[in-house]
Amino acid sequence: QVQLAESGGGWVQPGYSLRLSCATTENMFFAYTMGWFRQGPGKAREFVAGILWTAGRQYYADSVKGRFTISRDNTKKTVSLQMDNLQPEDTAVYYCAAARRRYQTTMIRDTTDFASWGQGTQVTVSS
Fold first, then answer.
1. How far is CA 97 from the centre of its chain?
2. How does DSSP assign 35-87, residue by residue?
3. Residue 54 and residue 66: Cα distance in Å, rounded?
4. How confident is the model over 28-57, as a mean pLDDT?
5. Of 9, 55, 91, 113, whose Cβ has the fewest other Cβ atoms within 10 Å?
6. CB 29 within 8 A of CB 74
7. Residue 95 forms beta bridges with which residues?
8. What is the pLDDT of residue 55?
9. Is the pLDDT of residue 93 over 90?
10. Distance between CA atoms of 104 and 102, rounded to whole angstroms?
11. φ, ψ for residue 29, nearest 5 deg
12. Which of 90, 85, 74 is nearest to 36 (CA)?
């Protein structure tokens, strides 16, 4: 499994931004499709954004499209989530995850497609 550690959560007012980061020491990081998920109070964990291992193609849940941006730096072995125009409904624990298989070429979104998870970081949006 890939060891992952998130950082960057916190509290913000609606309309503000936060940037989450996820770091690993995995040497094969470049070969993994990475994803961000979130789990709100009393809700199931849901897909937020993904980035393929090849060419860094990004894909998003409809609820965050146009507000969130996922990126990766294979040299630094990090994946980030820039979250703009945050809303109260974005309040959740956010998790980064690495795909179950290396060289994944499809835009996977299900939690079962990811085998490695970080510990999560809390994001709270309220006035």
1. 7
2. EEEEE-TTS--EEEEEE-SSTT-EEE-TTTTTTEEEEEETTTTEEEEEE-S--
3. 22
4. 95
5. 55
6. yes
7. 37
8. 77
9. yes
10. 5
11. -50, -40
12. 90
In the three-class reduction of DSSP (H, G, I as helix; E, B as strand; rest coil), residue 89 is classed as helix
Q: Which two tokens stand for residue 70?
A: 């996922």
pLDDT at 56: 80
Give one word for 30, left, alpha or beta, with left for phi > 0 and alpha for psi -120 to 50.
alpha
Two tokens, residue 30: 């470049």
Lookup result for tokens 């936060």: 18
Q: Which tens digits make up the pLDDT trace of 2-24?
A: 999 999 999 999 999 999 999 99
Q: What is each CA distance from 105 to 35, 40, 64, 78, 121, in whole angstroms?
A: 13, 29, 22, 19, 27
Q: Could you tell me if 113 and 100 are in contact, meaning their C-beta atoms sit under 8 angstroms apart?
A: yes
Give the per-residue pLDDT at 80. Answer: 98
